[in-house]
Specification:
Chain lengths: 366, 372
């Protein structure tokens, strides 16, 4: 396959294991997001691919060639960092040109390539400027241009939008997929922002404590998170998590939630009697001001409008907390809160996790 | 608690050997008893200077500040009936988290049992119940921030001042802690002023928002007033994520109504909207704004334009679609997935009620909704 393959990479330092048997593959033209909180080994992974750090075991394969022992410049890898890492005494042009200079590219060709990538990134008007004369957005585009100019087979982006302001970050989120597609590189994109991960990734590798906890397309990570930890990392507001016990009886099962017996969909005989945590996403909680037989009474304690929706802060009769999101047009009728409301949700939207291990329990297949 | 009044307050800094800087320019605000008000703006807009003048850490250059009808801006901080949570936390290093939080209550009359109960309650509310016996130097920045917040909130002072109260929170805790904080402030009818640069936080927590820029108050209103009737282009584009779409546009008379043309990058018309007569002059150059989630994408029936999809991102609970119409790049948000790939065409409608017009030169708002 053309692209990048990482096979069973492990790396340890004195303080312990940083990467533990990590395997993943990125095809040419594909973006794989490596997502995880800080300290999970994301940057070490990139350094190993780039060739500036050696793995203890495992291999790095680019276009079916093992490059684990190859020098960084022989690998055809481009890299951009969150702190930009521009040469302060070089102009924008010279910064972008530096990977081509290193390979003694003829000057006419060099000029042409730098010009083309600068136009694409809309920084062709600041090619004569020094880094200190650039805005953060322009610095970040310069760093990207430098990573792309030599048309690398593999592109490593280490949280490149971290240090630019929210508006610019959003614009780049829309622009990057189209830009990267034109270069047809295998891209590894590291971020801690789940929205960026979902927007940009063809696949997401959720990295936690040096291991890939889940490897799946964005929608699958969101809908079928493999564990409580992964479920909590994706979604804003964070998924509601409620302890309960499962009573399964053939194809129909119940959980006790908010003092009620609530049906669940799917067969869960294999998990009967276990202590569970139920996950319920805020957008799957329907809130009404009118009573219905199957609806559960809650106190509405605060209404928080966000951008497109409002978040409702609900408390059950047993003191359980629940967050719900409702559309902006619906939120007006809840005022400032502090009133009684009724809550419903669909059994199919409940995610079940084992309380002891935190792993998700999927229904049995027939 | 108490009403807080800022009457034409100005602040001028006079650094030695440099030009004076006017950080706050004649700002008036009335914060009602029990109201939650956000001071919102980017760095250097004057919001923190305002908070520090209310607290008494900065002199007021001109104007007056009153709490509960009493002029307080010449009093020392301790006599002003305000509690403040600092952005830099300012915890007492030799005291445990528990003692830091309860510190101000020690002066109050009443038993220690009550203090302990209140400390435990506020600590649980802010998820720091398990670190009460640690010292500030060994807890994380986020925990220090919540300790500082707890120390201010527990007093239930006549006026509470919070400087960037939640900037260090890990994202997984943000929504629930915002919710509990808002519930607490409402339950105890606490008059609260908080400073933030994060428009999402301002909208989520505040009853009213004061949007500041360059020391001037741009608008003071409820979150929905500010979203639906922004007073100028600055407010319109500062509030909302993703930001409002804004295009150059031209108005011309058409029959007994008006035609509004959105213009592409080279000034050529990209799309047309038909509206009833507006009181803005024909031929006038304006800027047209519409919020991403109010654009109707994939709508049946009458269509204003066809968009060519550039990117389509599903984020689990909403779609963000970027498309291009006659050279204009437009962002739309829906709460359902849209089946479309880059290069596909989508019918697009701009509901007239959601269209804002701004003066092209001054940025002042001309119309919110074009009536039908």
């Amino acid at each position: 396959m053309t692209g990048l393959e990482l096979r069973h990479l492990s790396k340890g330092f004195k303080s312990g294991k940083v990467l533990d048997d990590v395997s993943l593959s990125v095809q040419a033209g594909e973006i794989v997001v490596v997502f995880g909180p800080s300290g999970t080994g994301k940057t070490v992974l990139l350094r190993i691919v780039a060739g500036v750090q050696e793995p203890d075991s495992g291999s790095v394969v680019i276009d079916e060639e093992d490059v684990t022992e190859a020098s960084p410049e022989a690998r055809g890898v481009g890299m951009a960092f969150q702190n930009f890492a521009l040469f302060p005494h070089f102009s924008t042009f010279d910064n972008i040109a530096s990977p081509l200079e290193a390979r003694a590219t003829p000057s006419a060709k060099l000029k042409e390539q730098v010009g083309a990538v600068a136009r694409m990134l809309k920084i062709d008007h600041v090619l004569g400027h020094a880094p200190r004369e650039l805005s953060n957005g322009q610095k970040q585009r310069t760093a990207l241009a430098r990573a792309l100019v030599a048309q690398p087979k593999v592109l490593l982006l280490d949280d490149p939008l971290r240090n630019v302001d929210a508006k610019l970050r959003y614009e780049m989120r829309l622009e990057l997929p189209r830009l990267l597609r034109t270069f047809n590189a295998a891209v590894i994109y590291v971020t801690q922002d789940y929205k960026e991960a979902m927007a940009l990734g063809d696949h997401i590798a959720v990295l936690r404590n040096g291991r890939i906890e889940q490897w799946a397309p964005p929608t699958t990570v969101y809908r079928e998170p493999i564990s409580i930890d992964v479920a909590r990392l994706f979604g804003d507001p964070t998924i509601n998590l409620l302890p309960c016990r499962l009573e399964a009886n053939g194809a129909s099962g119940h959980v006790t939630l908010f003092g009620r017996r609530v049906p669940i969909s799917g067969a869960y005989n294999h998990a009967a009697g276990r202590d569970l945590i139920v996950g319920l996403r805020p957008e799957h909680v329907a809130v009404s001001e009118t009573e219905a037989p199957d609806a559960i009474p809650f106190d509405l304690d605060a209404v928080m409008p966000v951008n497109v929706r409002s978040v409702l802060y609900l408390r059950g009769k047993g003191g359980e907390e629940l967050l719900a999101t409702v559309s902006e047009s619906d939120s007006g009728r809840f005022g400032r809160g502090h009133r009684q409301v009724w809550v419903r949700f669909a059994p199919g939207d409940l995610l079940l996790f084992d309380a002891a291990t935190g792993q998700r329990i999927a229904p049995q297949l027939h | 608690m108490a009403q807080l009044l800022l009457d034409s307050v100005s602040k001028t800094y006079r650094p030695r050997g440099k030009e004076p800087v006017q950080a706050v320019k004649r700002v008036s605000l009335d914060v009602k008893d029990g109201e939650i008000v956000a001071l919102l703006g980017s760095s250097g807009c004057g919001k923190t200077s305002m908070l520090r003048m209310i607290a008494g850490f900065e002199d007021v250059t001109e104007g007056a500040i009153r709490i509960g009808g009493k002029e307080i801006h010449k009093l020392p901080p301790a006599q002003r009936d305000v509690a403040m949570a600092f952005e830099g936390y300012s915890l007492y290093p030799p005291l445990k988290v528990r003692e830091n939080i309860g510190f101000a209550l020690l002066r109050e009359r009443g038993g220690g049992a009550d203090i302990e109960k209140r400390v435990n309650h506020i600590a649980e509310l802010l998820e720091i119940g398990d670190i009460l016996d640690r010292y500030p130097t060994v807890i994380s920045a986020g925990q220090q921030q919540r300790t500082s917040l707890a120390r201010a909130l527990i007093r239930r002072a006549p006026v509470s001042l919070l400087d960037e109260p939640m900037s260090q929170l890990e994202p997984q805790l943000r929504a629930i802690l915002r919710a509990r904080l808002k519930d607490y402030l409402i339950e105890h009818k606490m008059t609260t002023v908080f400073v933030t640069h994060d428009q999402t936080e301002a909208i989520a927590l505040a009853d009213r928002i004061a949007v500041m820029e360059k020391g001037e108050l741009q608008q003071f209103g409820t979150p929905s007033e500010i979203k639906q009737s922004p007073s100028n282009l600055f407010v319109a584009s500062f509030i909302g994520e993703p930001p409002m779409n804004i295009f150059d546009a031209a108005i011309s008379a058409e029959g007994n109504g008006a035609a509004i043309s959105g213009l592409g990058p080279n000034g050529e018309p990209a799309f047309h909207l038909r509206a009833p007569a507006t009181d803005t002059n024909s031929g006038r150059r304006v800027r047209l704004g519409i919020r991403p989630h109010l654009i109707e994408i994939g709508a049946n029936g009458s269509v204003d334009a066809t968009g060519r999809v550039i990117t389509n991102h599903w984020l689990g609970d909403q779609s963000h679609i970027c498309f291009e119409i006659g050279g204009c790049s437009v962002v739309g948000v829906t709460d359902r997935p849209i089946e479309a790939r880059a290069g596909d065409s989508l019918p697009v409608r701009f509901p007239l009620g959601a269209v804002h017009l701004f003066d092209a030169d001054s940025g002042r708002a001309l119309a919110h909704g074009l009536g039908q």
